[in-house]
Amino acid sequence: MPELGSLVSRVRSKNAGPFWLTIDIFCGDTETFERLEPQLTTAAIAKLYDQPGQTLKRFAIPELHVLKFSMPRINIQGSRQDRDMHASQWAWLLSEMQVD
Questions:
Q1: Three-class SS of the chain
Q2: How would you write the pLDDT of the chain (100 residues) with one tens digit per residue?
Q3: What pTM did the predictor assign?
Q4: What values do phi and psi take at 35, rounded to 5?
Q5: Which residues pair with 58 in a beta bridge?
Q6: Quick check: 16 and 70 in contact, CB under 8 A?
């Protein structure tokens, strides 16, 4: 099974304010979007990141071939416990996810 990152144009994560982070999956084309959209469910992503499913927000934007997930940050941005100030490292775990 291929890794998600090998099928899409880009996976990126970023801050969505000091309390939330967002992960964007740029599929690049309709075929890839339609292949991945049913697999990348709220439950699957919540399990991957060990987050409660009810706190995760999922946005599918078919016109742009983008899937977007937002979730609360574990640590507030800039706090002593924050080890990823820009939330850029969250994308790597998703890009290595095995998909069909």
A1: CCEHHHHCCEEEEEECCCCEEEEEEECCCHHHHHHHCCCCCHHHHHHHCCCCHHHCEEEEECCCCEEEEEEECCCCCCCCCCCCCCCCCHHHHHHCCECC
A2: 899 999 999 999 999 999 999 999 999 999 999 999 999 999 999 999 999 999 999 999 999 999 999 999 988 999 999 888 888 999 999 999 999 8
A3: 0.91
A4: -70, -45
A5: 69
A6: yes
